[in-house]
User: What shape does this take?
Amino acid sequence: MMNLKTWIAAGAAVASLGVAPAMAQDNYKDEYRVSTVVPAPFPWGLTADRWAELVAERTDGRINMKIYPGVQLVQGDQTREFTALRQGVIDMAVGSTINWSPQINELNLFSLPFLMPDYAALDALTQGPVGEKLFEVVESKGAIPLAWAENGFREVTNSKKPIRTPADMKGLKLRVVGSPIYNDMFTALGANPTQMSWADAQPALTTGAVDGQENPLTIYTVLKMHELGQTYVTLWGYVADPLIFAVNPEVFNSFTPEDQEILRQAAIDAGAYGVEVARKGLTGGDTSLIDEVKGYGVDVVTLTDEERQQFVDATRGVYDAWKEKIGVDLVNEAEKSIENR
Ligand code: X2X
Assistant: This one.
């Protein structure tokens, strides 16, 4: 017959069996901080939200991710996001290749002017051998990359006049992101680029401190930039800006293999959804987003091949110089992937 003490011991043994897997997760944090620049309903923010939702669902809440938009964990300085991720100030991020380029030089690839003529070219890079190499570089720089998503092709807008040729840009004060290749490109085009964070860009547009900016059309529409005086839009698709889901290595390694896999697959799934929303109304014969912009009375310029070529020619020197900086082999491989797309 069991005495009381034995009963308690037996009960504890059974309980500990049930508790064992949970014990392995004692090291899990109550909340994982995920950095983004823009929140929902921008496609970028929707993408991050989806990732967090899928992970919560598929881990039964074991991994609780909270989105911190506005790169608030680095006081709005988006060019410091990757460093903070690497250091563990941020646990995870859905970050732009532009914003991480100051630390990961190879990511400047996507900012090479007129490298990618269309979405198939962008996909050929992110979904092919170039994408794999870039992920190896990201990992070597101190974060675990899981999947790609999309901010989008960046179009130039301004409050002054239609831009059809580089001559139209002369003297225009344009806000650019804080990666040096943008300064080089807009200087080569004869504009007057001024680098500032996204946080500073919005008031600068509102007050007219700058004449224009460049960003994906989804950023334009969600922010209603036509109401900020940005009534001239030129669809020139000079660069595209993919996003990367990434995790701090210590955080990633603290997860069970099963949870690591859930996090990765959820990023892949959220990325597919994110690409879809980022391209909605811009691809496959659906021009509804462009029509929406036109509907606001905005002057939307689509370049002829000849006009586009003038921008290509004017930025060719920047392309060549940055090809050297980024790495000739990598850029050659990217050019080849695009050719064979
Ligand atoms: O700052 C920008 O322009 C934005 C929001 O597109 C990025 O973070 C790259």
